[in-house]
Amino acid sequence: MAVELKHLQINNTNIPVIYENNSQLPLFFIQIVFKGAGSVSDGKELGISNLTSSILNEGTKKLGVTKFSEKLEERALSLSVGSGFETMNFTLSGTKDEIDNALTLLNELLSNPNFTKTALNKVKENTIISILEKENDFDYQANKGLKEMIFKGTALQNTSIGTQKSIEAITLKDIESFYNSYINLENATIILGGDIKLDDISQKIQQTLKILPSGKKVEIANIQANDKQGTKTIKKETQQAYIYFAAPLYIKDLEKESAILKVASFVLGGSGFGSRMMEEIRVKRGLAYTAVLRLLPSKTYSYTHGYLQTSLKNEEEAKKLVSEVVDNFIKNGITQKELDAAKKYLLGSEPLRNETLSQRLSSTFRNYYDNLPLDFNSKVLKEIEKLSLKEVNDYIKEHKEIGKLTFSIVSAN
User: Fold this and answer.
1) Where is each Peptidase M16 C-terminal domain found (predicted)?
2) Cβ density class 47-69: b for 16+ within 10 Å, e for less
3) Which of 245, 300, 333, 403 is most open to solvent, judged by the fewest CB atoms within 10 Å of its CB?
4) Domain residue spans in the chain?
């Protein structure tokens, strides 16, 4: 059965439900996604969304993390909370005969999270350790520096994990305030699938979620990547250079442009071996083990993002070559051979990305979230199949902004 869009009424709030009935295995998958509960809403309390999701993985105040985890384990259930840039999600899965118990435990977590000083101190300590460890993760540092430049003045310039100073300053009251502000029905979407019928469990889901406040709908403003080119070099004790780069990507109509964007991204640097970036930087010149550059479109923000590692002596040459590859790509477009190879790969591999139930549900939710048709993936494949070389190259030549590259480099130089 295809994935469908349904709705549930909970406390007079209309909640969208992404649903697929699949009886191949006696399993269920439920995810509650809260728009606006991600790091986009951190404000000055950098890392609070990530910290809130961490403490929500510490069980309930009544049971604590150990006993709550034991309750899940004895019924072979999985319940986890994760935070992204725009959303926070509660993911629940297990065998279908345990779905009642699963929803009961989810209700307990939502109504009585372990918002205690002990749990907060634990997750704060773990988060600060992670932050300190990332000081020597040079890929992370280069990408962090890049985001600070390309998305300066926006929520994306900050890391989702926060800083040691910001984490230390967050209080239990801050966590509770963030949770109460963003975990609500107005911003919820339910993703549901497996060997279950929505009609059979809709009342149980309503009982599970009715404890949540209605709240206010969150609107996330579009974020524009910075077109002011620049280079930042971060000095570290390293034996090689970590080069990260990005540029704006202007999208007028995501639905109409997605097929061409997939092909262009594949050829430019998103396909690994065979891509322009890999061919010029690794195959022809041996400057890097891998070199990637992808066009990343979305409803909220779109940009071009890439990276490579090279020896210190080849840093300048590699950086210069990245710009040359992109400039040539804009000027001359792609070849018929490259278009044919992109079509063959994309048409053959895309269906494999939707093999599992969770993959299909997540993909459909992404389409729904981006205001695209639920079956958008299959429509894109049909559009890719029909694309002509002229259509692709005309589009590429219009997007000169992808040549306005900003670089962030971790180097010993």
Assistant:
1) 170-345
2) bbbbbbbbbbbbbbbebebeebe
3) 300
4) 4-209, 231-411
Q: Which two tokens stand for residue 248?
A: 């704006």
Average pLDDT score over the chain: 95
Dist. CA 72–CA 68, nearest whole Å: 7
User: Which of these ranges, 319-323, 350-354, 408-412, has the smallest mean pLDDT?
Assistant: 350-354
271 band by pLDDT with thresholds 50, 70 and 90: confident
Architecture in CATH for domain 231-411 = 2-Layer Sandwich (3.30)
Q: How far is CA 337 from CA 309, 346, 365, 388, in A?
A: 28, 14, 34, 12
pLDDT band at residue 272, thresholds of 50, 70 and 90?
confident
The answer to which of 46-60, 95-109, 269-283, 295-309 has the lowest mean pLDDT is 269-283
Report the distance separating Cα 32 and Cα 89, nearest Å: 5
Give the contacts of 296 (CB within 8 A, at least 6 positions apart): 249, 265, 302, 303, 304, 305
pTM over 0.85: yes
Cβ within 8 Å of residue 177, ≥6 positions away = none
Q: Of the CATH numbers 3.40.50.150, 3.40.630.30, 3.30.830.10, 3.40.50.300, which one belongs to the domain with range 4-209?
A: 3.30.830.10
- The confidence band for 413, taking pLDDT boundaries of 50, 70 and 90, is low
Of the candidates 145, 138, 229, the residue with the CA atom closest to the CA atom of residue 408: 145
Give the CB-side neighbour count of residue 227, counting CA atoms within 13 A. 10
The C-alpha atoms of residue 26 and residue 124 are separated, in whole angstroms, by 38
Q: How far apart are CA 364 and CA 372, in angstroms?
A: 9
Domains 4-209 and 231-411 alike in fold = yes
Instruction: For residues 346-356, give the mean pLDDT.
Output: 80
What pLDDT, on a 0 to 100 scale, did the predictor assign at position 356? 85
Q: Are 22 and 195 in contact (CB under 8 A)?
A: yes
